[in-house]
Write a structure and sequence with these properties.
The chain has 242 residues and is an alpha+beta fold. 40% of the residues lie in helices and 21% in strands.
Length: 242
């Protein structure tokens, strides 16, 4: 039986997670990447796992282990002012009604707190790894986000699949039909897919660490998810004011 590339990457991450958790005192410190379903969106967030676990320990000592306990507690600290926990993140959705669009999920928000260091590339590559086919939100895209798509287009392990204008289709395949934005670059009017293993140092380890952090928190992970999504939104607001 042939194993898909996505399944192979999952197997590799699972083995890395087992290695991390095998120790009596697993080292869960360092940059981590987690995939967080939240309502109609899924967030892919790179963050400081040591700081997250420190905040979760503080809440545990206060007896706060669920989102409802956090909301109703008079004494819960406001960790939304802890933006240094977040390195970068993207919000992804499948709800844009623009046509088949190569079956792509769409990035509808992205923001980085740390400039440089490749954090934006890391979360986009993790999102490509997670979702398979991924494209930009052509209705609202910042110059920095467009630049990142152009950067991805130059990577050998990433393939670009141009959209065919759904209002004036030119190809026989209806799956590539999409709402093409006039005057935008071909990189914006395309979707992307990994052609090979991501050639990005540390990506597998960061994703495995994210999975290990989730496993270590158990049922309390949902509170950590809430914290990470809230902090990402704070970073997004600070960058774009909307």
């Amino acid at each position: 039986m042939r194993i898909t590339e996505m399944r192979l990457r999952q197997v590799i991450r699972e083995e890395l997670i087992r290695e991390v958790l095998a120790s009596d005192t697993p080292d869960l410190r360092g940059p981590a990447i987690s995939v967080i379903p939240w309502g109609s969106r899924t967030f892919v967030i790179a963050y400081d796992s040591e700081l997250l676990l420190s905040r979760m320990h503080e809440l545990d000592e206060m007896g706060i282990n669920t989102p409802s306990q956090y909301v109703t507690s008079w004494f819960a600290p406001d960790f939304s002012r802890d933006p240094e926990m977040i390195y970068s993140g993207v919000a992804v959705t499948a709800t844009l009604a623009d046509g088949p669009c190569n079956g792509a999920m769409h990035v509808v928000g992205s923001a980085s707190r740390v400039r440089g260091g490749g954090w934006g590339t890391a979360v986009y590559m993790a999102a490509l790894e997670q979702f398979g086919e991924l494209g930009p939100d052509r209705h609202s895209i910042s110059p920095s986000a467009e630049g990142l798509w152009k950067s991805l287009d130059r990577r050998e392990e990433v393939g670009r699949h141009p959209y065919d204008d759904i209002k004036d289709p030119r190809t026989p395949d209806p799956n590539d039909d999409c709402d093409v934005r006039r005057g935008r670059s071909v990189q914006v009017n395309s979707s992307y897919r990994l052609l090979d293993e991501p050639a990005l140092a540390g990506l597998s380890e960061m994703r495995a660490l994210g999975d290990a952090v989730q496993a270590s928190l158990g049922d309390r992970w949902i509170l950590a998810e809430q914290m990470l999504v809230k902090l990402f939104n704070e970073v997004f607001q600070a960058n774009f004011g909307r």
